[in-house]
Design goal:
Layout (H helix, E strand, L loop, with lengths): L2 H26 L5 H22 L7 H25 L5 H8 L2 H11 L8 H18 L7 H5 L1 H23 L6 H22 L2 H4 L7 H28 L2 H4 L2 H17 L5 H33 L1
Helix pairs in contact: 1-4, 1-11, 1-13, 2-3, 2-9, 2-11, 3-8, 3-9, 4-13, 5-6, 5-8, 6-14, 13-14
C-alpha cells in the first residue's frame, strides 16, 4: 500500500472518528457521570498506549517530561475535553462541535496577545472577526429567550471555556519538553488528564451518582467507541499524520469534524438542523480556514524574505 493511500486512510479515520465522538459522548453521559466517563476513557486508552510504547522500546520519560505532559493533559483533557463532556449533558452534539471548532480563533488571539507572539495579518484579523461573529450567530443571545445562550447558559459557557483551554494547551504543547515519541507523549497526557478528571468527578460528587446497574447499553457502547475510535484510532492516526503528511492537509480536520458531527447528530439522534446552524457553521469554519490561510501566507512570506 502506497504512502499516499495510507495518508488518506488515516485522514478518513481522523475525519470520521473525531467527528463522530461528539455524539458518542452524548450517548455515554446519558447514564454515566461526565467526568468519571471521560476519566475512564482516557485512563484505559492512556494505559494501552503507554504500555505499547514502552514495550516497543521507547525510553522511560523523565520527571520534566512528565511535568510537561501533565500540564498539557490537564489543559486539553481535563479543561478542554472535560468541559465538553460535561456540557453535552445539555447542548446538542452538533452545536458542541461547532463551539469547539472555534479553538483556532482563540489560538490566533492568544498568540497575538502574548509578548513575543505572532501579530496577525489582515487575513487572520478578518478571520477572527468573522469567527466570533459566527459564534454570536450560533448562540443568538439577542433572540427571544436568549437563543441557545438562554436555553443552555451553563453549557455554552463551558464550551467557550473548553475552546479557550484547548487553545492554551495546544500552544503550550508546541514548546513543551515532551518525549520524542508522539504516541508516548499522548499516552502520558491521557494518564495525567484522567487523573484530573477523576479528581473533578470526586469533588463534584459523581461517585454517589454512579449506578453501575443503571448504565444503559447505549452509554456503554458510547464509552467503548470513545476509547477505541476517539482516543486510540483518532489520536494514533493524527500523531502519525503530523510526521508524514503536509500540515495544511492535516489541519483540515478542524473544518470537517464539526460538519460530520452535525450530520451524524441529525441522522442518528434527530438533533435539529436549522438554517441558522448551517449559516453559523459556514461562517465559523470559513473563518478558521481564513486564519490558517493567513498563517501559511505569513510563513511563506517570511521564508521568502530569508532566502532573498
Amino acid at each position: 500500500m502506497s504512502l499516499r493511500v495510507r495518508i488518506w486512510l488515516a485522514m478518513m479515520a481522523v475525519y470520521i472518528a473525531w467527528g463522530s465522538t461528539y455524539l458518542a459522548i452524548r450517548f455515554a453521559v446519558e447514564t454515566i457521570p461526565p467526568f468519571l466517563m471521560a476519566a475512564a476513557r482516557f485512563l484505559i486508552a492512556g494505559m494501552i498506549l503507554y504500555l505499547w510504547q514502552r514495550l516497543s522500546g521507547a525510553p522511560a520519560p523523565s520527571r520534566r517530561q512528565w511535568g510537561a505532559a501533565a500540564a498539557v493533559g490537564l489543559l486539553l483533557l481535563l479543561g478542554g475535553n472535560g468541559a465538553v463532556t460535561w456540557a453535552e449533558q445539555y447542548v446538542p452534539s452538533g452545536v458542541t462541535a461547532l463551539m469547539v471548532g472555534s479553538a483556532p480563533l482563540w489560538m490566533a488571539l492568544i498568540d497575538a496577545a502574548r509578548p513575543k507572539g505572532s501579530r496577525p495579518n489582515w487575513m487572520t484579523a478578518a478571520g477572527l472577526v468573522a469567527g466570533f461573529t459566527g459564534i454570536v450567530l450560533l448562540v443568538d443571545p439577542l433572540a427571544q429567550g436568549g437563543g441557545l445562550l438562554g436555553v443552555y447558559p451553563a453549557g455554552i459557557a463551558a464550551l467557550m471555556l473548553a475552546a479557550l483551554l484547548w487553545a492554551l494547551g495546544s500552544l503550550y504543547s508546541r514548546s513543551a519538553p515532551l518525549p520524542e515519541s508522539p504516541l508516548l507523549g499522548t499516552a502520558m497526557e491521557m494518564l495525567a488528564g484522567a487523573g484530573g478528571l477523576l479528581l473533578a468527578g470526586s469533588l463534584t460528587g459523581e461517585w454517589s451518582r454512579l449506578d453501575m446497574a443503571a448504565i444503559s447499553a447505549r452509554s456503554l457502547w458510547g464509552l467503548v467507541y470513545l476509547v477505541i475510535f476517539g482516543s486510540l484510532v483518532g489520536f494514533a492516526s493524527y500523531t502519525w499524520l503530523l510526521r508524514v503528511a503536509p500540515t495544511p492537509l492535516v489541519s483540515t480536520y478542524a473544518y470537517v469534524n464539526p460538519l460530520v458531527a452535525i450530520l451524524i447528530g441529525n441522522l442518528l439522534a434527530a438533533e435539529p438542523l436549522t438554517v441558522r446552524t448551517l449559516l453559523a457553521a459556514s461562517v465559523i469554519l470559513g473563518s478558521v480556514a481564513l486564519i490558517n490561510l493567513g498563517r501559511f501566507r505569513k510563513i511563506a512570506l517570511t521564508a521568502a524574505a530569508y532566502t532573498d
